[in-house]
Amino acid sequence: MLIIIGFVIVLGCVAGGFVLSHGNLLSLWQPFELLIIGGAALGAFLAANPPKVHKGVFKNILGALKGSKYKKAFYLELLSLMYELLQKSRKEGMMAIEADIEEPANSPIFSNYPKLLADHHIIDFICDYLRLMVGGNMNPFELENLMDLELAAHHKEATMPAEAVTKVADGLPGFGIVAAVLGIVITMAYIGGSPATIGGHVAAALVGTFLGILLAYGFVAPLAIAMEHNAREEAKFYECIKVCLMAAVNGYNPQVAVEFGRKVMYASDRPSFSELEEHVKNSNG
Asked: What average pLDDT score do residues 120-147 get?
């Protein structure tokens, strides 16, 4: 929502300042310039990136517009789930959670957390490493190294859409110049005509440069940055899962393990110790 508000402010201030300076807004309406700039940028984007990045960009744009879901309430759900799983495995043995991690959709534990269950990437990550822990054949160093490698690959893949959009933002001023040069080429055909006609064509050409710069720095670059923030928040969420699991592997009891996870959160999303304790108690009856 904030990104939409930001876009409205950008557009309002630029257009408002232009009008207050006695400019005519209709002179900025140059649809063919937009066609040149937008079409060239879209074509370059499609040519430069593989299909998985195309899909990722459109998915991440929607995510940036909606805002990140990795807030305090979501973290509390995660830590409650981790506590419940680790508590059951500590009391009844690791084999007791085998049915839960093999079919999380049918698990009474996972079913208590529908928001987490709806994200199969999170559930797969938790279940995959709990499955390795149930097997009991990996030492903590090997397990942590494997987690680090997977998280690094996941984060790299998650940031690829934002990097692609950043490249588009970098290229938009150049495409604006292309539109302006084409406008000047058209203007040259009117040399010898009336000053008003020539001035109108020169103004239309300059609008191309204006649109390229405005789209780059006022809209596309901020969108890319918002996507990067979402990717970092997602990476932090998975890091929280990793820390909880590694604390359990190293022998800490479930309450301490989830406290480890709480400590690695960003301060803006981190619940207090008492908030976490109260939420865990309420979630587990």
From this structure: 88
Is the predicted pLDDT of residue 285 greater than 70, yes or no?
A: no
Give the start-to-end residue ranges of the domains of the chain: 28-283
Question: pTM score, two decimals?
Answer: 0.87
Whole-Å CA distances, 36 to 44, 175, 204: 12, 8, 13
Amino acid residing at 264: V
